[in-house]
Amino acid sequence: MRTTLILVFLFGIQHLLFAQNEFIELKAEPANFQAKGFYIQKVEDGRINRDNIGFVQKGAFNRKVTADLRNGVESAIFNYLKTSVSQDTAATPIIMRIVHLNISERTNAFSEYGRAEIAVEFYKNENGNQGKVYEAEAFIDKPAMDVTKGHEKRIREVLLMCLEKFNNSGWENAVPVQNQELPVVENVVAANTLPKQEPVVSSYGMQQAPRWNSLLTFNKTLGVNADGWALTYYGYTNSEKSKWIIPWVISIENYTVDPTYFSQWGYSQAQFSYYMPGISAFNKLNEKGNLMANFTFMIPVGSEKLTDYSGRESTHFVIGLAPTQGIYFVPESNFGITFGIGVYEKLMTSKVYKSDIGIKFEFGLKF
Predict the structure, then answer these.
(1) 332 — alpha (psi -120 to 50), left (phi > 0) or beta?
(2) What whole-number distance in Å separates Cα of residue 6 and Cα of residue 218?
(3) pLDDT at 352 over 60
(4) Of 120, 123, 173, 241, most Cβ neighbours within 10 A?
């Protein structure tokens, strides 16, 4: 006997595993900005991690794809400023150093958010030495119909926000800081060596948006009265401040009832059709958050079509309770193997499958 819960899976495993980089090209659109007494002579990439500028989400399961600026950060930003920002090349040359640049996406129940954040340092030459005269940060975090397409515009916007802050900062009167071990912003401002500006939040990292995580798993169930299998997708955001995770869950399930158990009720065939609304929750058991306890409570609701040994058919409403408790290992990294083991119970109003208890083994991928 088999039952199938049909809730759509749109992509195969190969599309989840072999994603390509997303390249973003800044558009040469005129900016509403007029530089006051300076021009950007050079753009430097001063980021610690230069592998990419973040990630975008692709497909129905929001798989992570790393993103970068086409032709690299230095070239892409310099060419954009040269072609789109009004500057006076006869004025003071300024070196613009990008120390943080990140884009990200997150998905809520009814919307998608795109985020771009940047931190920039501005340098000028004085008496043959290069010194920092200002530093600025900016970020944009807002919903959009196509957040991936909007990253290009958000990057341009945060760049211009930093330039506007520099433009109005009084940088001309700042004493350049030439020490490589540059003091933190609060100390510099207190010493009046740099113009007043907004304080740095943390390591040039404006508060990061929660990252979307996906688990795609296969599980095998071994019960007293029925055996089965299922494919399940979990999607969730992970906050370090909370020990609880409440994921979105969709599943396809198939099981076979033991013929000995089934035949005692006087029926030769049965077909089941039902949905299983409910809730699943994970509780972090350790500091790393990679060992979790799972608590799932589902309510099967549907019908069964039965055929007795005389060939007579009947249809009955079915409702039940299906709790599960288990322990899961979920890797900290963005991609990896996840596995778990649990105990499940079923209580049904079915005439042929009234109750069950068993063990569930689950194995899959985090991406």
Answers:
(1) alpha
(2) 15
(3) yes
(4) 120
